[in-house]
Amino acid sequence: MNPLLELKKLGQSVWYDNLRKGLVTSGELKRMIDDYAVSGVTSNPNTFERAIAGTNEYDEDISKLLKEGFDDEGILSRLMTRDVRLAADQLSGIFRETGGSDGFVSIEVDPRIATDAGSTVEEARRLFDVVDRPNIMVKVPGTREGLKALETLTYEGRNINITLLFSIDRYAEVAEAYLSGLERRLSEGLPIDTISSVASFFVSRVDSLFDRMIEERIERSVSNDEKARLRGLLGKVAVTNARLAWLKFEAAYSGERFRKLKDAGAKPQRLLWASTGTKNPRYPDTKYVEELIKDGTVNTMQLHTLLAFYDHGRARMTLTEDIEGAKKLFGEMESLSIDYQAATRRLEKEGTEAFSEAHISILRSIAAKRDALEKKRAVAPRYSLNGYESEVSDALQEIGSENFLERLWAKDPTLWKTGAQEKKLIKDSLGWVVLTRVMDDHIDEIEDFAREVREAGFRDVVLLGMGGSSLAPLVFAETFGRAPGYPKLTVLDSTDPGAVDAVTRSIDAEKTLFIVSSKSGSTIEPLSLFEFFHEKVHKLKGDAAGRNFIAITDPGTPLEGFAKKYRFRKLFTNPKDIGGRFSALSYFGLVPAALMGVDIGKLLEYAARVEEAIHPCQPESENPVIILGAALGTLGRLGRDKLTFFMSNEVAAFGMWLEQLIAESTGKEGKGLVPVVSEPLGKTEDYGNDRVFIFITVGAEDRKFTGAMKSFAEAGHPVVELKLGDPYELGGEFLRWEVATSVAGQILGINPFDQPDVELAKKLTVARLSDISKPEGLKPPGVGVQANGFGVYFGKKTFEKLTRADGDAKKMLSGFLGLVKEGDYIGVLAYYNPADSSLSAEFTELRRALRDSTGAATQFGYGPRYLHSTGQLHKGGPDRGLFIILCHQPDEDFKVPGSQFSFSELELSQAFGDMEALDSKGLRVALVDLKDPSVKTLKSFEDLLARAARS
Q1: 114 pLDDT above the threshold of 90
Q2: What is the secondary structure of 581-616 as a DSSP string?
């Protein structure tokens, strides 16, 4: 059963909320008409702008119009009216079959003239004349001036979509204006039987605002009874508002006044439910479709809502259910002093301003595209595939034949796996595909909180998290820095005592906001760090310490309980259908970014452009996002699996996030792509035939990479180049690489959304922590030898492969490095303070020495950070890694409050546990306990390793 066809049978029309040329020319609109019962289209200025800025769909048109002498306004007008004409022709059959009641395409007047009724009327007349199709509606904002325009245009016999309606009273005024226009026309003997009109009543935006207002009241309230009453309103205002608007509709169109008009052939102005995508992850994704079903209405849906309802929607008449309950709920709102009128006035004002800004953004995007075309500046990735073109082309054809993009939007798990358990896991992990649409509605909430934090006098923000909860904030902190007047963001994703001490010394705990960030809410590192810093703040502020903490987590986690128990300042509950490494643009990334002054709206706008680029109307074979994934997956399958990244300094930190995304997503079932990030640039002869070189640059071409790109390509290596105009374009790069990695995962035949081998190291860490209480305490695993004051321990299975060399550490290390084969990589895994720049420089030199002496690619990761990043690849990917774990004894240590262990003991347990995990899988691993954490000792080990490599 097709739920969308059931809506049609029930008498409700389905319109699609997105119009762009490719929708028609690709055949996608026709398919939606045939398969999804779509019977109308509404233009959306936001998605139109993103199609221009984020794809090459309009490049040829813009170039042609430029040659014809059109300015940006003229180009916009020509493009929009042409698209409307194309869609109207596609829908003309429905228009004829329904006698002019359905099959419409809506186009908006310039929203900048929303406060001028006369200009609005003139603009509407122009659009009707230019498009010249009977089945179009012109969108007019439902402001007071818009009502005057509605009456005039209805009187003139024109089809109008009166939009941006939020309040019941304003809707009643709209009905009055429509009826008055019909009456004026009829009084002059003019026909009224060909006029159709809809009133676009917005839904989910209402819940978004009222829920925020209600939640703020709950936080302030001291009465448990009042809190319970307020909670009873959450998620209910929007549907209640729509139901009461329906009562106004019935009152307007069931009386004697309309009967006279109806006798002359008039149609009632249908209620159209707009903004029906669910914004709150706690609510069903089909909520604003399922609860608003009624014959004679229209529901306009964006793609994700359309596909969600098609997949699991339930169609039955629901709009008029419990009308008395709706009236009571509004009475309850009034008794709780929730100002409905002020809120809906705010929604109308913000909606009108947003439409105006969207129009201006379209003009900016046309100007930017014009400039790029005139200067012939590349905006899509550039490839030198060097002999792999046919294989990548074949992969693209296969991906296209499987309708990858449509199935991705539909959250179809069978793109990757078909087992029942796997399908459920995947389906519950694809929320990131539409995340920009969800989070766009939370920008105000996040920025309001950032303003509260500044006003509260916080000077520092310290994020306590690991992996997907920390890497995107780390990218933002290193890429943007704090804006003037905002707190400094420090990310602490280490259990190293030196790292903990460095952060402690750098802040005033009383004036620091701590973010405890964990998807599962049970990750040992952030919870241990929370206990440590909460104790410090508690000594200063007593029971008010919780006001210095916020939490970001999934619904129902232990951390959510902590947040309530300790009375945190704020709890952000993230959508649960998003994996940690796909959560950069969710609360996990955006809240820390906003707190340091990053423009999160701008980040999301760039992401939205990429989202528009992956719309199913873009053929996979021509889609730059899909091409990237197909190239990486195909090259990896053919042995080019070392993805070696070089980046401009402005965005170098992005590599840390990419490293986790690619490694943890693809490294399983003995397969995987190996991201190589921050390896020093070498000469062409330093690299093997397992490399793919990827350059990500900002602004003008990064000259230090020009020669390398050319020489690598000439040597036969595949080379990919992505140019960014602005670091804020990282917002789009997050989504680009998430999609590309998902495509590569399909080509490799793995599930990109699980991490089956991560748990092993966690279990072994817990086992190691239990050793603390034993007489012998924590001891390194494996078989050890001593050298230069430090210990070298080899995994038991590794030791069996080595020549004993009479316990000579240098000879044994030489034998260990001799295990490196062609196509292998070396992972240097250092349990040290990641903020120590002098150590970081030495680790870079160590990587250079290992690469140059063995010819192998090198990875580097700080422990325990890498356990949540590349650790899955190490244990679940191909057996091509040789691992060197480095640890030390700290100068100073700190107990974790409420636990039996210290940070050093936790850190060593994690190092030892990971070595055991690697060894248990038969992987080549050595652990080196350098004891002293100084640069001098590290240099001594480097010297020993260099001599071992030469012998």
Answers
A1: no
A2: GG-TTSHHHHHHHHHTT--HHHHHHHHHHHHHHTST
Nearest to 460 by CA among 501, 515, 407, 499: 515
Q: At what angle do helices 28-36 and 303-312 cross, to 10 degrees?
A: 30
Contact between 165 and 201 under an 8 Å Cβ cutoff? The reply is yes
Q: How many Cβ atoms are within 10 Å of 333's Cβ, its own excluded?
A: 22
Query: Is CATH 3.20.20.70 what the domain over 3-354 is classified as, yes or no?
Result: yes
Residues 791, 923: contact at Cβ < 8 Å? no
Q: Say how many residues make up the chain.
A: 951
CA geometry: angle 635, 637, 639, nearest 5 deg: 70
Specify which residues 471 forms β-bridges with.
Answer: none
Residue 426 tokens, joined: 């995947």
| Domain 3-354 matches domain 758-950 at the CATH topology level | no
Question: Does the domain formed by 758-950 have CATH 1.10.10.10?
Answer: no
Catalytic residue among 8, 64, 67, 139: 139
Q: Which residues of 111-145 are buried (b: 16+ CB within 10 A; e: fewer)?
A: bebbebbebbbebbeebbebbebbbbbbbbbbbeb
Q: What is the pLDDT of residue 805?
A: 66
Cα distances from 748 to residues 402, 420, 430, 639, 741, in angstroms, run: 15, 20, 19, 12, 10
- The 3-class secondary structure across 143-161, one letter per residue, is CHHHHHHHHHHHHCCCCEE
φ/ψ bin of 386: left (φ > 0), alpha (ψ from -120 to 50), beta (otherwise)? left
Contact present, 503 and 490 (Cβ < 8 Å): yes
Query: Can you tell me whether residue 572 is helix, strand or coil?
Result: strand
Contact predicate 652/480, CB 8 Å:
no
Burial (CB < 10 A; 0-12, 13-18, 19+), residue 407, is middle
CA distance linking residue 222 with residue 202, whole number of Å: 33
- Whether the Cβ atoms of residue 239 and residue 210 lie closer than 8 Å to each other: no
704 is known as an active-site residue: no
Instruction: Indicate if the pLDDT at residue 784 is higher than 90.
Output: no
Residue type present at position 692: V
Residues 6+ apart with CB under 8 A from 600: 443, 446, 447, 590, 593, 594
Can you give the pLDDT at residue 701? 63
Q: What is the CATH number of domain 441-598?
A: 3.40.50.10490
CA torsion sign, 651 to 656 to 657 to 659?
positive
CB 515 within 8 A of CB 463: yes
Question: How does pLDDT run across 339-362, given as a tens digit for each residue?
Answer: 999 999 999 999 999 888 988 999
CATH fourth-level superfamily of 388-428+608-748 = Glucose-6-phosphate isomerase like protein; domain 1 (3.40.50.10490)
Residue 560 CB coordination number (10 Å): 17
Average pLDDT over residues 493-513: 98
- The region, left, alpha or beta by phi > 0 then psi within -120 to 50, assigned to residue 749 is left
**Look-up of token digits 């209480």:** 773
3-state helix, strand, coil in the chain (%, to 5): 55, 15, 30
Share of the chain above pLDDT 90, in %: 88
DSSP H or E segment with residue 516: strand 512-517
- The closest alpha carbon to 865, from 826, 903, 910, belongs to 910
Instruction: Output DSSP code: residue 638.
Output: T
CA dihedral sign of residues 26, 54, 131, 203: positive
Q: Where are the domains positioned within the chain?
A: 3-354, 388-428+608-748, 441-598, 758-950
